[in-house]
Amino acid sequence: MPNYLLKNQKLKEIRISQELCSEVPDYHESWPSDIYFSINNVTLGYWTSPTDFVSTRGLYTPHWWADGASQYGMLKTLSVTEDGSFIDNKKVSEVTLENLNLIPGKSIKYRISVPNDAQNVGGCTIYGKGFGNYNQSIRVSLYYETEQAAVSC
């Protein structure tokens, strides 16, 4: 994702909001998946999705989408600050902004994955605008403070 921050802007928080659920071939009511999040190849933490939501149609899922396919997920908000990494305001790791090798003007690599060695190895469905229950694409917000340049008299 692009990083438009300037050298005089100090990043205070990255916040990413997305709708996710487990993925399984066909359908299985009890199918947890450990979904991991990373930025610039640094693992921030994971969330265990409880299931592949198929039995109830998603509020925004198009009519042409098959009834037996994943319909919706849960809205998850990932944030990274100077105090650590959080999912839905619950601390999941000690990884801070300082650990992410963020450089003004250089793209930020964001990854969502289910590693083969996770405790719950399922899949992951990512929903975007026009699908699921939240009618949003992945939302990324960068919160920053502008540092004032020293002025000499």
Structure, explained:
The chain is mainly beta and 153 residues long. The protein has one domain. 0% of the residues lie in helices and 41% in strands. The protein is built from no helices and 9 strands. The strands form 2 sheets. Strands 1, 4, 5, 6, 8 and 9 form a 6-stranded antiparallel β-sheet that branches. The chain has a 3-stranded antiparallel β-sheet with strand order 3-2-7, with no helix packed on it. A hairpin with a 2-residue loop joins strand 2 and strand 3 (42-49). The radius of gyration is 18 Å and the shape is elongated. The model has no long low-confidence stretch (mean pLDDT 94).
Task: Please give a handful of descriptors for the protein shown.
six-stranded antiparallel β-sheet; 153 residues; mainly beta; three-stranded antiparallel β-sheet; 9 strands; elongated
Shape: elongated
How much β-strand is present in the residues?
35-45%
Main sheet record? 6 strands, antiparallel
H/E element sequence: EEEEEEEEE
Low-confidence stretches: none
Count of DSSP helices? 0
- Structural class comes to mainly beta
How would you state the average pLDDT, rounded? 94
Radius of gyration: 18 Å
Count of domain modules: 1
Number of strands: 9
Helix proportion range? under 10%
- Alpha carbon gap, first and last residue: 40 Å
Provide a short characterization of the protein structure.
The chain has 153 residues and is an all-beta fold.
SSE layout and pairings?
Layout: E1 9-23, E2 33-39, E3 42-49, E4 74-81, E5 84-87, E6 90-93, E7 110-113, E8 123-127, E9 139-146
Antiparallel strand pairs: 1-4, 1-8, 1-9, 2-3, 2-7, 4-5, 5-6
